[in-house]
Protein backbone atom coordinates (compact mmCIF):
# COMPACT_ATOMS: atom_id res chain seq x y z
CA UNK A 1 0.00 0.00 0.00
CA UNK A 2 1.38 3.39 -0.97
CA UNK A 3 2.25 5.93 1.68
CA UNK A 4 2.17 9.68 1.17
CA UNK A 5 3.02 12.64 3.35
CA UNK A 6 0.73 15.58 4.03
CA UNK A 7 2.07 19.10 4.36
CA UNK A 8 0.30 22.46 4.50
CA UNK A 9 1.48 25.99 5.17
CA UNK A 10 -1.80 26.59 7.02
CA UNK A 11 -0.34 24.73 10.03
CA UNK A 12 3.13 25.04 11.54
CA UNK A 13 5.89 23.20 9.74
CA UNK A 14 7.29 20.12 11.44
CA UNK A 15 10.07 21.15 13.84
CA UNK A 16 11.93 17.88 13.47
CA UNK A 17 12.47 14.91 11.15
CA UNK A 18 8.78 14.03 10.71
CA UNK A 19 5.78 15.06 8.62
CA UNK A 20 2.59 16.84 9.63
CA UNK A 21 0.73 13.67 8.68
CA UNK A 22 1.17 10.37 6.88
CA UNK A 23 -1.55 8.88 4.72
CA UNK A 24 -1.74 5.13 4.10
CA UNK A 25 -4.79 4.05 2.13
CA UNK A 26 -7.82 5.67 3.74
CA UNK A 27 -6.02 6.25 7.05
CA UNK A 28 -4.40 9.52 8.08
CA UNK A 29 -1.98 9.56 11.01
CA UNK A 30 -1.40 13.16 12.05
CA UNK A 31 1.56 14.15 14.16
CA UNK A 32 0.86 15.86 17.44
CA UNK A 33 -0.06 19.51 17.12
CA UNK A 34 0.96 22.05 19.70
CA UNK A 35 -0.28 25.67 19.91
CA UNK A 36 2.05 27.10 17.29
CA UNK A 37 0.64 29.44 14.68
CA UNK A 38 1.48 28.63 11.05
CA UNK A 39 4.24 31.28 11.20
CA UNK A 40 5.88 29.36 14.04
CA UNK A 41 5.00 31.76 16.86
CA UNK A 42 3.70 30.25 20.07
CA UNK A 43 0.24 30.98 21.47
CA UNK A 44 0.80 31.99 25.06
CA UNK A 45 -1.99 31.87 27.58
CA UNK A 46 -4.17 29.31 29.24
CA UNK A 47 -5.19 25.85 28.07
CA UNK A 48 -8.29 27.24 26.34
CA UNK A 49 -6.35 29.63 24.09
CA UNK A 50 -3.75 26.99 23.36
CA UNK A 51 -6.33 24.29 22.60
CA UNK A 52 -8.10 26.50 20.05
CA UNK A 53 -4.83 26.91 18.14
CA UNK A 54 -4.16 23.18 18.32
CA UNK A 55 -7.57 22.51 16.75
CA UNK A 56 -6.97 25.14 14.05
CA UNK A 57 -3.77 23.26 13.15
CA UNK A 58 -5.47 19.86 13.18
CA UNK A 59 -8.28 21.16 10.95
CA UNK A 60 -5.72 22.58 8.50
CA UNK A 61 -3.84 19.28 8.23
CA UNK A 62 -7.09 17.36 7.82
CA UNK A 63 -8.29 19.77 5.12
CA UNK A 64 -5.04 19.39 3.20
CA UNK A 65 -5.60 15.62 3.23
CA UNK A 66 -9.21 16.02 2.07
CA UNK A 67 -10.86 15.48 5.42
CA UNK A 68 -12.39 17.23 8.41
CA UNK A 69 -12.89 16.63 12.10
CA UNK A 70 -15.81 14.35 11.23
CA UNK A 71 -13.25 11.88 9.83
CA UNK A 72 -11.36 11.56 13.11
CA UNK A 73 -11.63 8.10 14.67
CA UNK A 74 -9.07 8.48 17.48
CA UNK A 75 -7.49 11.37 19.34
CA UNK A 76 -4.64 11.25 21.81
CA UNK A 77 -4.41 14.27 24.09
CA UNK A 78 -1.34 15.13 26.11
CA UNK A 79 -1.77 17.79 28.79
CA UNK A 80 0.73 19.24 31.19
CA UNK A 81 -1.70 19.50 34.12
CA UNK A 82 -4.71 17.21 34.62
CA UNK A 83 -6.32 20.08 36.56
CA UNK A 84 -6.85 21.68 33.13
CA UNK A 85 -8.85 18.66 31.91
CA UNK A 86 -12.27 20.27 32.41
CA UNK A 87 -11.40 23.38 30.40
CA UNK A 88 -9.75 21.31 27.70
CA UNK A 89 -12.77 19.02 27.53
CA UNK A 90 -15.06 22.03 26.95
CA UNK A 91 -12.95 23.21 24.00
CA UNK A 92 -12.69 19.64 22.67
CA UNK A 93 -16.48 19.34 22.78
CA UNK A 94 -16.91 22.58 20.82
CA UNK A 95 -14.96 21.09 17.92
CA UNK A 96 -16.30 17.55 17.90
CA UNK A 97 -19.88 18.11 19.07
CA UNK A 98 -21.90 14.90 18.64
CA UNK A 99 -19.04 13.22 16.76
CA UNK A 100 -17.24 11.37 19.52
CA UNK A 101 -14.02 9.68 18.35
CA UNK A 102 -12.17 7.39 20.73
CA UNK A 103 -9.79 9.36 22.94
CA UNK A 104 -6.99 8.97 25.43
CA UNK A 105 -5.86 11.82 27.66
CA UNK A 106 -2.53 11.62 29.42
CA UNK A 107 -0.83 14.04 31.80
CA UNK A 108 2.82 14.43 30.90
CA UNK A 109 5.77 16.05 32.68
CA UNK A 110 6.74 18.26 29.76
CA UNK A 111 5.73 19.04 26.19
CA UNK A 112 7.67 20.71 23.36
CA UNK A 113 8.13 24.45 23.93
CA UNK A 114 6.64 23.94 27.42
CA UNK A 115 3.09 24.19 26.05
CA UNK A 116 0.05 23.04 27.98
CA UNK A 117 -1.46 20.72 25.36
CA UNK A 118 -0.61 18.55 22.36
CA UNK A 119 -3.13 16.52 20.34
CA UNK A 120 -2.57 13.87 17.70
CA UNK A 121 -5.30 12.23 15.64
CA UNK A 122 -6.02 9.28 13.40
CA UNK A 123 -8.65 9.81 10.73
CA UNK A 124 -10.39 7.60 8.19
CA UNK A 125 -10.72 9.46 4.90
CA UNK A 126 -13.09 8.59 2.10
CA UNK A 127 -11.37 6.64 -0.65
TrEMBL record:
It comes from Brevibacillus centrosporus. It comes from the Bacteria. It holds the Pfam family Ribonuc_L-PSP. One of its GO terms (cellular component) is cytosol. NCBIfam families: Rid family detoxifying hydrolase. One of its GO terms (molecular function) is deaminase activity. Signal peptide: none annotated. This is 2-iminobutanoate/2-iminopropanoate deaminase. Belongs to the RutC family.
